Amino acid sequence: MNRGNMRGWLAVALVLAGAGIVRGDDRALLVGHGPDFRDTVRSAKNRVFPAVVFVKCIRDTYEEGKKRAQEVSGSGVLISPAGELLTNWHVIDKAVEVRCLLYDGRAMNARVVGSDKDTDLALLQLDVPEGAGDLPYAPLGGSANLEEGDFVMAMGAPWGLSRSVSIGIIACTRRYLPGNSEYSLWLQTDCAISPGNSGGPLVNTRGEVIGINSRGYLMGGDLAFAVPSDTVAFVVDQLRTHGEVRWSWTGLELQPLRDFNRNTYFEGTQGVIVASTDPESPARAAGLQPRDRILSVNGRAMNALTEEDLPAIRTWLGLLPVDQPVQVRFQRNDAEQTCQMIPREKGRVEGDSYDCKRWDLTVKTINQFENPELHFHRQEGVFVYSVKYPGNAAGSGLQTNDIILKVDGRDVRTLDDLQQIHTTLVEKVDERHRVVFTVLRNGLMRQVVLDFLRDYERE
Question: Number of folded domains in the chain?
Answer without folding.
Answer: 3
